């Protein structure tokens, strides 16, 4: 995809990875600002770029001096090797490591926004990639939005997610068969060899707090990193009970978590129906991250 087919300021830097520099580069530097200077957005599986750009556009308006990295999640993720998944995210890792190494930004301020299990899995892969590079990240002001996940990832949920992501019935049916085969193979691996399925790895990673240098699902996160779960009682793809259970377990482990439960919104559609409530919660989350950081106390 060329630059003209994305959005003003967004440039493709890899397979499904896009970079957006701050919209006001000529304005005074914001090193002393409390706003995030780097925003990572991990889209839901099959999300078209125009849909994701609606979210990044709001971030441009909220935090105009922030650099954004946008990562798409596509069906190929599920039958790709770990090596391929990691390779696709190398450009994002390069930008992150260069950006957080800038001496003028003390400390880095990183806001992470993940959508559904698809975005969560990309975030999980990204965290593993960063840890494998053994780069020591400086203390970071950070917060994470977990929208419409995590779910247990049953076969029916996986098939439903693929059906939503692939409108063509000619492509959908063979891919559903492939997903069913891969899902069954994963279950066999788990029972025979103890290899965790992808969704189980995501659920575990979102609960992790191994301390430095491993951190949480991303290496700079710890138990005090504010996390906001967003879910709905009418989500037909990821049942609200699964997200509530994960939230309660995270809280029981001492993680800094909040949850916002909507009554009537579809999967990953909360911001579309209730923008003021949704983005207000994101702003409040970020304010709590700044207030809770040692350098801001």
TrEMBL record:
Its main location: nucleus. One of its GO terms (cellular component) is nuclear outer membrane. The lineage of its organism: Eukaryota, Fungi, Dikarya, Basidiomycota, Agaricomycotina. Belongs to the TMEM53 family. It is a single-pass membrane protein. Keywords: Membrane, Nucleus, Transmembrane, Transmembrane helix. This is Indole-diterpene biosynthesis protein PaxU. PANTHER family: TRANSMEMBRANE PROTEIN 53 (PTHR12265:SF30). SUPFAM superfamilies: alpha/beta-Hydrolases (SSF53474). It is found in: Nucleus outer membrane. InterPro entries: AB_hydrolase_fold, DUF829_TMEM53.
């Amino acid at each position: 995809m060329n630059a003209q087919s994305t959005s003003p300021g967004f440039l493709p830097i890899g397979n499904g990875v896009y970079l957006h520099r701050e919209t006001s580069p000529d304005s005074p530097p914001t090193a002393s600002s409390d706003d995030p200077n780097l925003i990572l957005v991990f889209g839901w599986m099959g999300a078209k770029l125009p849909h994701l750009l609606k979210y990044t556009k709001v971030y441009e308006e909220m935090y105009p001096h922030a650099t954004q990295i946008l990562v798409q999640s596509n069906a190929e993720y599920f039958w790709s090797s770990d090596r391929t998944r990691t390779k696709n995210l190398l450009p994002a890792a390069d930008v992150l490591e260069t950006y957080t190494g800038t001496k003028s930004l003390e400390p880095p301020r990183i806001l992470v926004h993940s959508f559904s299990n698809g975005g969560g899995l990309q975030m999980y892969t990204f965290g593993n990639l960063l840890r494998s590079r053994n780069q020591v990240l400086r203390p970071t002001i950070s917060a994470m939005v977990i929208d419409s996940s995590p779910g247990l990832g049953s076969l029916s949920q996986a098939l439903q997610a693929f059906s939503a992501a692939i409108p063509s019935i000619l492509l959908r049916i063979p891919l559903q068969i492939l997903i069913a085969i891969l899902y069954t193979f994963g279950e066999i691996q788990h029972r025979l060899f103890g290899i965790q399925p992808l969704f189980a790895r995501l659920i575990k990673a979102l609960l992790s707090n191994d301390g430095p240098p491993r951190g949480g699902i991303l290496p700079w996160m710890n138990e005090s990193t504010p996390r906001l779960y967003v879910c709905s009682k009418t989500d037909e793809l990821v049942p609200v009970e699964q997200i509530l259970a994960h939230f309660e377990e995270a809280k029981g482990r001492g993680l800094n978590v909040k949850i916002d439960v909507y009554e009537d919104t579809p999967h990953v559609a909360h911001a579309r129906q209730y923008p003021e409530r949704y983005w207000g919660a994101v702003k409040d989350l970020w304010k709590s991250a700044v207030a809770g950081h040692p350098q801001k106390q």
